[in-house]
Amino acid sequence: MKIIVDAMGGDNAPSEVVKGALKVAGEDGIEIILVGRGEKILTCLEEQGKKTLPQGIEIAYASEVVDMEDDPSTAVRNKKDSSMAVALRMLRDGEGDAFVSAGNTGALLSGATLVVKRIKGIRRAALAPILPTENGGCLLIDCGANAECTPEYLVQFAFMGSSYVANLLNKPSPSVALLNIGAEPGKGTELQRQAYKLLNELKEQERINFIGNIEARDVLFGLADVVVCDGYSGNILLKAIEGTASFILGGLKEIFLRNAMTNLAAAIVKKPLRDFKKRLDYTEVGGTVFLGVSKPVIKAHGSSNANAFANAIRQAALIVKTGIIEDIQDNLWDIDAGEE
Known about the structure:
Elements: E1 2-6, H1 15-24, E2 31-36, H2 38-47, E3 57-61, H3 75-78, H4 83-92, E4 98-101, H5 105-116, E5 126-128, E6 130-131, E7 138-141, H6 151-168, E8 176-179, H7 190-204, E9 210-214, E10 226-228, H8 231-256, H9 260-268, H10 270-280, E11 287-291, E12 297-300, H11 306-322, H12 324-330
Parallel strand pairs: 1-2, 1-4, 2-3, 4-12, 7-10, 8-9, 8-10
Antiparallel strand pairs: 5-11, 6-7, 11-12
Helix pairs in contact: 1-11, 4-5, 6-7
């Protein structure tokens, strides 16, 4: 299995990308193609003590880089020899099985849609991260790819999310909830009310395990396996969770380092605290998949370190193995998703 990796994407590229690739290359038959400025990639490999190209790692040369400041809608077209553009074409042409990048999110989505293409029948690709919950994790879809949605888009998100969770998290008939400001069916804007109606009809037809609305405060308690929303609301929820987690962990650290007595308390609870912190650590997940694209494209966090890149590559390999994309392709539903 070959995973294509954008070696130049992200705040810590290419050094942390290369370190992450070295952690994973050869694991479970994973081969990695690092795409980018070859001389920089080779220098990073030498810094890790690799004088020759390690087994399981290849380099595909690309002279340009898509920057965070580039216009997302035109970056891939204007920079045809960028690491992102070259990698997307390689994925499209079957030179690899999946693609991982920590680069410009908008450019990656635009490029994946234009170059790799969406699954036939799917109107919009969506960002779908796994959030930590009390009972393991839930999928949030969409978290930023589509600020404006139709009710039909949300229905497609629900089906794609269900397929992802059923295959990747091994949860048959996963529960699906609609993010809203209240549990009652009539809550929310016209978007939420119409989406609720469509999802409830599909529930009655036993085509989806829709459990109704869910409020933001209940998401991390694991009341649903899939949380569906427009990208605007989902991104606010995701950033709020990230900020709250950072605030709480920072506050706990300050408390435990206050004096000798709190230091002793910290030593007593060190392991459970470390486990809790790990549950909230994005580097343990690796990346977020673009569901709806015809081949696996994974967006790693812009500030990813070597551990995050390694886990993003593992996540890409798992998506290939479980056949999630094929499952969505083979089970398209007769949902009228409206006009493009």
